[in-house]
Amino acid sequence: MSTLEIKGLNVEINGTPILKDFSLTVPKGEVHALMGPNGTGKSTLAKALAGHEDYEITSGQVFLDGEEITGMEPDEISRAGLFMAFQYPSEIPGVSIANFLRAARTARLEEGEKINAPAFYKELYEKMDLLKIDRSFTSRSVNEGFSGGEKKRCEILQMAMLQPSYAILDETDSGLDIDALKIVAEGVNKMRGTDIGFLLITHYQRLLNYIKPDKVHVVYDGRIVSSGGPELAHRLESEGYDWVKEVAPQPAGA
Ligand code: ADP
Ligand code: MG
Description:
Blueprint: E1 3-13, E2 16-27, E3 31-35, H1 42-50, E4 55-64, E5 67-68, H2 74-79, E6 82-85, E7 92-96, H3 97-106, H4 117-130, E8 141-142, H5 148-162, E9 166-170, H6 178-191, E10 197-201, E11 215-220, E12 223-228, H7 230-239, H8 242-247
Parallel strand pairs: 3-10, 3-11, 6-9, 9-10
Antiparallel strand pairs: 1-2, 1-4, 4-5, 7-8, 11-12
Helix pairs in contact: 3-5, 5-6
The chain binds adenosine-5'-diphosphate (ADP) and magnesium ion (MG).
């Protein structure tokens, strides 16, 4: 049961249904892309899975390797092994990236256990080198005054340091120039392997030129309406999203 399993999820925002019986399984070791027109519920899925309080799960369940995470607090979900890179990451003024990552790693230790600071920094610098991130980056406040590309790089660094079982990246390509996009893709491709599953949420096919997904799913009106291989992303690039409406279930009475 090494999967991220989303079963019949219904999510409301302020009483408005957004996700409708949404189901998806991402096996560990695979990279799945979730694509779809704007406003169809992709970011809602990411936030609901992360345990955001404004996104009410009215029914359905989410399992990480068989452990139910539905209803858990965001920090518990994170410690259970789910990492989330948001479309619009928050700024944390006054907290340096190094201290932020150290706190996040410390929170994952057993009670009474202490972080090995030299080993932590050694690993941090190795991963920064791998991701081509300048050393001066670590002393800057998290996301404060960062460019779009720097914010994304910061999130990839967080992901590399937290080594989650599953990672969801929401529109990691939006607003990135090609160089920054390649760094993000390189980061994902370097981390990709048997012990992690990825869900890449993206409106455009562009990111998938650099990260080859195992499966592609198309979401429309709060549910998956089509699934396939990488060729599905190419179809979306050449034909756009118009055909998606045709294959979507029609609302009752239509
Ligand atoms: P996507 O990421 O696919 O573009 P979203 O999940 O952001 O779509 O949005 C899905 C729907 O939910 C949209 O109709 C959007 O207006 C609505 N929505 C998203 N977030 C909120 C919010 N915080 N409050 C009210 N409505 C929201
Ligand atoms: Mg979105």
